[in-house]
């Protein structure tokens, strides 16, 4: 997934590593706690996927950072209600563009448990909706119209 935002790569990067700011762009992300800056965090993610309401307390580890262009994170957690286990690896890159910056997000998601029975189509729709909402919020945060 990718998007072009009307911000310099430097400004976009500053926003990406400002965890309280960037977490406000993530739908359903709450209670973000910094354990060690650019190393580890805790957060709760709440979503409705199909008939399930999920609430996942997650541990987020920053696996690598190449300033000012790339960060890789790994998030793991278990839904409080269904017991579904989630693991997500995100590779996020900032690429200079003529009109600002291109943000690319490569996500690898592993879902085990009741939520996995919903099927890939339902889950992918929710991921796509969340990415669209993230894009809208990020552009608003960066002052784009």
Provide a brief overview of the structure:
The protein has 145 residues and is an alpha+beta fold. The protein has helices spanning 9-16, 19-23, 120-141; strands spanning 2-5, 29-36, 40-49, 52-66, 70-78, 85-97, 100-112.
Note the topology.
Blueprint: E1 2-5, H1 9-16, H2 19-23, E2 29-36, E3 40-49, E4 52-66, E5 70-78, E6 85-97, E7 100-112, H3 120-141
Antiparallel strand pairs: 1-7, 2-3, 3-4, 4-5, 5-6, 6-7
Structural account:
This protein has 145 residues and is α+β, with helices and mostly antiparallel strands. The protein has one domain: Alpha-D-Glucose-1,6-Bisphosphate, Chain A, domain 4, CATH 3.30.530. The protein is 24% helix and 50% strand. It has helices at 9-16, 19-23, 120-141; strands spanning 2-5, 29-36, 40-49, 52-66, 70-78, 85-97, 100-112. It has a 7-stranded antiparallel β-sheet. The protein is globular. Pfam families: COXG. This is Carbon monoxide dehydrogenase subunit G. InterPro entries: CO_DH_gsu (IPR010419), START-like_dom_sf (IPR023393).
